[in-house]
Amino acid sequence: MPNQTLSAVSTPADKKATPKKGKSTSSVKKTNTSKAASVRKKIFVLDTSVILYDHSAVQNFQENDVAIPITVLEELDNFKKGNDIKNFEAREFIRFIDKLSSEHKLQDWLPLNGKNKGSFKVLMGDTANIDAVRIFGDKNDHRILNSALQLQKEFPEHKVVLVTKDINLRLKARSMNLTSEDYETGKIQDVAGLYSGNDTLEDIPANVINELYEQGKSDIKNVLDEAPADNHYFILKSFKSSILSFYNSSEKQLERVDKLTAYGVKPRNAEQAFALHALMNPQIKLVSVQGVAGTGKTLLALASALEQRKEYKQIYLARPVVPLSNKDIGYLPGDIKSKLNPYMEPLWDNLKYIQNQFSETSKEFQKIKDMLDLEKLLITPLAYIRGRSLSNIIFIVDEAQNLTPHEVKTIISRAGENTKIIFTGDIYQIDTPYLDSQSNGLSYLIDRAKNHPLYSHVTLQKGERSELANLANELL
Questions:
Q1: Order of strands, edge to edge, in the sheet holding 110-111?
Q2: Could you tell me the CA-to-CA distances from 236 to 110, 132, 245, 289 in Å, in that order?
Q3: DSSP states of 122-149 as a string?
Q4: Are 167 and 274 members of one domain?
Q5: 205 shares its domain with 143
Q6: Which end of the chain has fewer surrounding CB within 10 Å, N or C?
């Protein structure tokens, strides 16, 4: 969550040690600081993975001091060119420390801007008593580890913490008696309890269900004492009947959810009906659909966009390009289109599925072909969307679990008038090394945007791809 510090910073012990108003917390180098005051601070050493995840990370450690090894700057230099979000993060951080050090040396402790902030410096030395390079081999990670060890030797009165999103580096640090933690800002603590967007309510009075069937709406107080989250979905069950419903927060009432059809695609279960309702509701501008493989996330999003094509100027389908085996797409043969095709194939598969429901001579089949030819429907890597103004379009972002929270925020902040943004993905199927179910952008969005009138989320539970695909999800 924004401005949330690491768990180590916010423990009760640390709260007791918060400096009183007027106390200086700008530098651990001050010789006139008392011993009692000096032990209040920690020194956090950040590695490259943290900077690429969040360029503003150095600002999120309260009054504690933050340092980066010179090796991190060297690694960031390799990321400064390119269109991916990691390249943007690298450039932004470089600009930040350039401004911070415009009148000072980076080898000195420089006060960070803001109330109750610590100081920042670049670590030049890595001559610790214990040599990580000698033990583990000569590579950048181990030079970063040595810098943190040297800092621990230089400031024994402070707790030095290496912060990295690299699990293996954290383990190596701990093996050398150096405290190491993951970067916690934006991390969801309770993934198991993540907002699902829908519930099943039993023992509902029959007259409420009858009212929904006949009038299409009912007072929420007939079902719940307290209002649920905005745009929340319900399966309401009585002894003999059931109905699908939706909480319209603007009207403060339940409304019946009918099973819609979108460009020939019909929902096969209640959750899919909820998802289509949210995707085709013009009042809801931001939708996320989460579920395991085969639940129909991308198919429903694409079908709903095609159904609403007349309401928008264009439809964009994008997904993050996650290089295989940590190799950039430049390793693949061919021109840029050939390089990107393997990453875009799942989107093409869903589009072909929708198109093949109709005969080749039908107007529905031809319409999709025309939209592709006229670029009314664009399938593109996510990196090509950055910097554009997204007005009067439906923008579908597939595999959103491979985005960072900052990337999700950047995408949504590009939305202009009459734009609808849809994120789909599975928070447990992550392909990037420094994200997990707690720290990815999709989980972050679901947790932070719930209960907003412009947002709706649905978790799809049942796989509908095939019985064989269900077997894999359930048993393997």
A1: 110-111, 119-123, 65-69, 42-46, 159-163, 179-181
A2: 59, 60, 7, 21
A3: EE-----SS-HHHHH-SSHHHHHHHHHH
A4: no
A5: no
A6: C
Q: Which of 463, 465, 458, 462 is nearest to 289 (CA)?
A: 458
Q: Which residues of 394-429 are buried (b: 16+ CB within 10 A; e: fewer)?
A: bbbbbbbbbbbbbbbbbbbebbeeebbbbbbbbbee
Q: Are residues 281 and 359 part of one domain?
A: yes
Same domain, 174 and 214: no
The residue with tokens 């079902």 is 223
Structure-token match 């007939």, residue found? 222
DSSP 8-state code for residue 182: -
Q: What is the DSSP string of 236-250?
A: EE-SS-EEEEEEETT
Same domain, 405 and 260: yes
- Across-strand partners of 235? 200, 244
**Same domain assignment for residues 423 and 461:** yes
Burial class from Cβ neighbours inside 10 Å (0-12, 13-18, 19+) for residue 49 reads buried
pLDDT digits (tens, 9 = 90+) for 272-325: 999 999 999 999 999 999 998 889 899 999 999 999 999 999 999 888 876 543
Joined tokens for residue 196? 């699902």
Model confidence pLDDT, tens digit, residues 173-220: 999 999 999 998 888 888 889 999 999 999 999 999 999 999 999 999
Residues 6+ apart with CB under 8 A from 40: 14, 17, 18, 19, 25, 63
Q: What is the span of the domain harbouring residue 96?
A: 12-181
SS3 label, residue 314: strand
193 in any annotated domain: no
